[in-house]
């Protein structure tokens, strides 16, 4: 009898579990598996494979990489050793260096290695033996490029497991030519992408007729992973970075990288400009989150423009993104990218609206970090370019930010002059948003410079009404913060608490980072005024810590006010209690600080909680 028939006869009436390992290299035998299942009713098969068999009776169970420690986790060496990825790394490291021990000193580097290798067991097994010659921190530095480092597998393993490159190549070589081309193209995306971007960037006359089929095939072969997304939103797909590194090698060798990079830039430029408009719409939170999801791709597109000296598209992209950088706390990164773009030969002499808008963004981000000289220089040039082009709306934009900078430098007369002109131009051109913003800052000048809280409140209420009419929740929350500040100055504590609560809740909902610092400070000032001194110090500590992680500074008037009431708090509390409260605030991460302000601050008997450990993630 033929072997398949003999096998069916042998298994037909037997309750057997048949294990078939590494089935991908005999995928053509899937028909035999189907016959076995159909003709042997008591037979069960457990099959491991890098690719699904695509049989009707098949049930797929994805085997994920080992969980690696999260960036936000601050774990002891003992707790870290219990992590599956760290445990595998330790066991393989100690097999070659028995005296290697996980400690508090090397634990962070080991955790970072496991994250960099994304919990891939083979990658961990190839990296760990390097501990013979490289301590964890030195090993981590060499993992910027993974594939040249992940070599030297055990000789008793199959050849394809001797290096990470060979392991990935084994799966790559099983693909069709069209699937290989798609795999190379998808490597262009950093940290994943959605199907629309794949269709826009990867479609070509030589590619597969249906990209969705190709994506599904790469997903079945474990070269592409689908990420969890919110319901009713297009799914996102990403490669593990080790696999992506191999894809980029193949893409570079194909000669198609330049054309694909151009498409990638065009795709994300179009997306960024659409999102920039969305930031000034009722869907602010949606667009901020969309930009956050694709921030890695946007960075990649900007770096490509800088490397290729593509000033026009690079400046357009940065001009679209600076509002996102400002709100989400990426001022340091945004300033560096804008500086590189503005220094490009074509950009340095361009008299265009794109350059004027990029300079406006550079000024706003510099202001956020307290670099008022750089901010003023950029904004003066931006105003001049907008005037030169007769762009009144753009001029109003730039005058608004310049007035903001002058206000923060406490040059109130200059600020009022700039903001008044901006308000006039905004009203003349129907630019309601800029009119509302100018009114907002003019109101705070009345409070800070003239202590005229009645006039300040009138202007702020007018600004608030305009923002509400435009349905802009972020700016409504910012004006509510200013109104809360005025209420604190007037000792209207209940009104202040309600306004601050509304403001901070709104900021939390849209993922605001910059304004939250001011809200926490003002909540602290209110708590201090009500005699809740420890709560006040905690909130000030939390606000200071979040500013440091975001690379921003508080405004001078805020610094002076905080210094004054913190000095009073030091006199009220003994030094031990003051330091304990400050350190508790410093230990709060962003979510903890918001929850503490909203739930506990400024109440007669606050419900104190032990804050969770602060997140070490760098929020720029």
Secondary structure elements and their pairing?
Elements: H1 3-11, E1 16-20, H2 30-39, E2 43-47, H3 77-81, H4 84-96, H5 104-116, H6 121-127, H7 136-142, H8 164-172, H9 177-186, E3 193-194, H10 195-202, H11 211-220, E4 225-227, E5 236-238, H12 241-254, H13 257-278, H14 284-293, H15 295-307, H16 311-328, H17 331-342, H18 345-348, H19 353-368, H20 372-388, H21 392-408, H22 412-428, H23 432-450, H24 453-470, H25 473-489, H26 493-510, H27 514-529, H28 533-550, H29 556-572, H30 575-586, H31 590-599
Parallel strand pairs: 1-2
Antiparallel strand pairs: 3-5, 4-5
Tell the overall outline. Answer: globular
Helix content: 55-70%
Can you tell me the residue ranges where pLDDT is under 50 for at least 5 consecutive residues?
601-620
Order of neighbouring strands in the sheet with most strands? 3-5-4
């Amino acid at each position: 009898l033929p072997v398949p028939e003999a096998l069916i006869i042998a298994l037909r009436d037997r309750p057997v579990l048949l294990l078939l390992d590494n089935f991908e290299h005999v995928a053509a035998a899937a028909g035999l598996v189907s016959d076995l299942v159909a003709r042997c009713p008591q037979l069960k098969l457990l099959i491991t494979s890098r690719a699904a068999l695509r049989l009707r009776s098949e049930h797929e169970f994805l085997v994920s990489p080992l969980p690696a420690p999260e960036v936000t986790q601050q774990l002891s060496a003992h707790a870290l050793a219990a992590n599956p990825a760290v445990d595998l790394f330790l066991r393989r490291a100690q097999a070659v260096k028995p005296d290697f021990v996980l400690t508090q000193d090397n634990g962070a580097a080991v955790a970072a290695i496991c994250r960099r290798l994304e919990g891939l067991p083979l990658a961990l097994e190839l990296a760990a033996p390097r501990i013979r010659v490289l301590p964890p921190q030195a090993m981590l530095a060499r993992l910027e490029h993974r594939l040249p480092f992940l070599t030297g597998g055990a000789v008793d393993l199959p050849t394809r497991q001797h290096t990470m490159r060979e392991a990935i190549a084994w799966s790559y070589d099983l693909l069709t030519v069209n699937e290989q081309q798609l795999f190379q193209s998808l490597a262009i995306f950093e940290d994943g992408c959605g199907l629309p971007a794949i269709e826009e960037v990867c479609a070509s006359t030589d590619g597969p007729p249906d990209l969705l089929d190709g994506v599904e095939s790469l997903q079945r072969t474990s070269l592409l992973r689908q990420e969890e997304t919110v319901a009713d939103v297009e799914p996102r797909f990403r490669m593990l970075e080790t696999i992506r590194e191999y894809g980029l090698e193949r893409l570079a060798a194909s000669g198609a990288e330049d054309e694909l990079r151009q498409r990638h830039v065009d795709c994300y430029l179009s997306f960024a400009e659409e999102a920039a408009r969305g930031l000034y719409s009722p869907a602010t939170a949606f667009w901020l989150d969309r930009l956050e999801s694709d921030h890695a791709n946007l960075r990649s597109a900007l770096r490509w423009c800088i490397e290729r000296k593509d000033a026009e598209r690079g400046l357009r992209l940065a001009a679209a993104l600076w509002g996102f950088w400002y709100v989400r706390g990426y001022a340091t990164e945004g300033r560096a990218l804008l500086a590189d773009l503005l220094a490009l030969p074509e950009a340095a002499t361009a008299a265009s609206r794109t350059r004027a808008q990029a300079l406006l963004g550079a000024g706003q981000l510099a202001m956020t970090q307290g670099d008022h000289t750089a901010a003023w220089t950029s904004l003066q040039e931006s105003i001049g370019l907008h005037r030169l082009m007769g762009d009144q709306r753009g001029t109003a934009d730039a005058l608004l930010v310049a007035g903001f900078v002058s206000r923060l430098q406490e040059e109130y007369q200059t600020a009022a002059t700039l903001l008044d002109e901006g308000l006039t131009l905004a009203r003349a051109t129907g630019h309601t948003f800029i009119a509302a913003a100018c009114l907002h800052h003019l109101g705070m000048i009345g409070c800070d410079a003239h202590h005229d809280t009645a006039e300040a409140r009138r202007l702020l209420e007018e600004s608030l009404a305009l923002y509400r009419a435009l349905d802009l929740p972020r700016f409504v929350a910012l004006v509510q913060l200013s109104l809360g500040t005025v209420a604190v100055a007037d000792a209207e504590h209940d009104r202040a608490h309600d306004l601050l609560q509304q403001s901070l809740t709104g900021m939390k909902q849209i993922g605001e980072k910059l304004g939250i610092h001011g809200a926490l400070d003002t909540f602290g000032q209110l708590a201090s005024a009500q005699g809740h001194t420890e709560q006040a110090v905690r909130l000030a500590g939390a606000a200071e810590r979040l500013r440091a992680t975001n690379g921003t500074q508080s405004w001078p008037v805020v610094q002076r006010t905080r210094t004054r009431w913190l000095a009073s708090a030091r006199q009220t509390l003994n030094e031990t209690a003051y330091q304990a409260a400050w350190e508790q605030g410093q230990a709060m991460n962003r979510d903890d600080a918001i929850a503490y302000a909203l739930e506990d601050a400024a109440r007669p008997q606050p419900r104190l909680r032990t804050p969770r450990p602060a997140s070490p993630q760098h929020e720029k």
